[in-house]
Amino acid sequence: KAGVTQTPRYLIKTRGQQVTLSCSPISGHRSVSWYQQTPGQGLQFLFEYFSETQRNKGNFPGRFSGRQFSNSRSEMNVSTLELGDSALYLCASSFGSGDYNEQFFGPGTRLTVL
Amino acid sequence: AQRVTQPEKLLSVFKGAPVELKCNYSYSGSPELFWYVQYSRQRLQLLLRHISRESIKGFTADLNKGETSFHLKKPFAQEEDSAMYYCALFMDTGRRALTFGSGTRLQVQP
Q: Is A47 helix (H, G, I), strand (E, B) or coil?
């Protein structure tokens, strides 16, 4: 099976702009979770989508949003970018939601905000 | 609130030496605990979970509920074990998501 893919791999934006990141899960997986990874805060959970519905949400401001399409592909959007949003954004897919299902991680999108 | 603590940012050992990567957690419910590993230029991947009670690549981890710990151990480190290791907690209630520790970089020297 092909692994989780994320596009783009690298992105440079300026403060105030918005950005959309994309994640394609492993075929057959219906859950997609997003994480932000920074040197200071480590890996932090953003949100999880399952069957096009947000199931869980982390402690991030409303500028961070996401959605999931019927083919399970997911997008994450960050509006009004701030310097502190510079991070590696990881998505992970799993078969189900609720009880733990092994999450398979993508390579990440590295976002730099100038 | 749930929390995962990995007290060591870096652990450096020689090949053949025993390894113990520490992980402590705080969670009032019934936790599920995992170790994830990220080798250089590779993706984050699951190494082992406490429920499985298995040994992967020679690594084992035992959940100690009394000490709220889930330390990762290997009796004889290999150079290929050099990587970033993350302990993670999955809650059984509320926000059902992984909470990660800050990670420990393991360096195995020849």
A: strand
Provide, for chain B, the percentages of residues in helix, strand and coil under a 3-state DSSP scheme, each rounded to the nearest 5: 5, 45, 50
- The encoded tokens of residue A89 equal 């954004």
Please name the amino acid found at residue A77.
Answer: N
Find chain B residues with C-beta within 8 A of A43's C-beta.
86, 98, 100, 103
To the nearest 10°, the Cα dihedral for A73, A79, A84, A87? Answer: 20
Which residue of A58, A102, A106 is in closest CB contact with B97?
A58
Chain B residues within an 8 Å CB radius of A44: 100
CB B46 within 8 A of CB B54: no
Cα A71 to chain centroid, rounded: 16
Per-residue pLDDT of chain B (110 residues; tens, 9 = 90+): 778 999 999 999 999 999 999 999 998 877 889 999 999 999 999 999 887 778 889 999 988 989 999 999 999 999 999 999 999 998 766 666 789 999 999 999 99
